Each structure stands twice: as structure tokens, then as C-alpha cells.
Amino acid sequence: MEEMVRRLICEKRQQSVAQATPSEIVRRYFGPQGGIDLGERAGFGFKVPDFRNPSSN
Questions:
Q1: Which domain of life is it from (predicted)?
Q2: Residue 27: which domain range?
């Protein structure tokens, strides 16, 4: 029994390490499958700079 628990803990740790990016974790807990819709990003009243095309700022 103890060996099974150790194996399950080890597998769970390996799965949690396999999470590549924080955005995947947020998407998993707060995405549509988690019951919460994040919606569109709000502009908050200011223009977001475009660093790829600096002349458009």
C-alpha cells in the first residue's frame, strides 16, 4: 500500500512539472472548461504599445 502511494505521488509530481507555462495553468482553472469565462482583454483607457512596429505608436 505504501509503495502504491509513493508511486502515485511520484506520478503526480511528474505531471505537475510537465506544466509548460503559467498560462496553461490559468487556462485550466479559469478557462471555459473551469466554468469562468475570462472574456476579452480590456484596454483600460490607454493604447497598448506595439513593439514590432514602433512607427505606429
A1: Bacteria
A2: 1-33
